[in-house]
């Protein structure tokens, strides 16, 4: 939880052995159930649609791996919806709600698991590849990306928890060359 701003506020007892493992197993099952209709809809063909789900379950069944991947599993779940919004952009005229949702989900995923900040680049590449280039759509993704950060900042201010926010920002963005 050192890479998650939102999880740093929650008590660590939530992630203790019985409940943390159960939450992670339910998350893996949920991702697997979402992958089946996702691959059926966007990757045509009647055979082979279950294969990504089988690979995901096989890789996720490693108990040691799953016990240390809480925030990243939730970020993977959100990533499926980011890709879904990007695929919906293809051959549509008004896509601002879809690209805003992709940017918003990317920002939310970043709050949950900080290394997923690079998904914003995938959003931009997806929009450029699936549609003719429009600066307004790229800007809409960026605006959607920063909305969860604004809400989180307001939430931390209302809960008088600025110190947690400041320490997370300092720990995340401090680069020390002399150690």
Topology pattern, helix = H, strand = E: HHHHHHHH
Query: Portion of residues in helices?
Result: 55-70%
Shape, please?
flat
CA distance, first residue to last residue: 24 Å
User: β content, as a range?
Assistant: under 5%
Sheet with the most strands, sense and barrel status = none
Number of strands: 0
SS element count, helices: 8
Low-confidence stretches: none
Helix and strand content put the structural class at mainly alpha
For the CA atoms, what is the radius of gyration?
18 Å
Instruction: Compute the average pLDDT.
Output: 77
Task: Give an account of the 3D structure.
With 179 residues, this protein is mainly alpha-helical. Helices cover 70% and strands 0% of the residues.
Question: What is the structure about, briefly put?
Answer:
The chain has eight helices and no strands. It has 179 residues and is mainly α. Helix 1 (17-42) runs antiparallel to helix 2 (51-60), helix 4 runs parallel beside helix 6 (119-130) and helix 6 packs antiparallel against helix 7 (135-158).
Write the layout of secondary structure elements.
Blueprint: H1 17-42, H2 51-60, H3 63-67, H4 70-88, H5 96-112, H6 119-130, H7 135-158, H8 162-173
Helix pairs in contact: 1-2, 1-4, 4-5, 4-6, 5-6, 5-7, 6-7
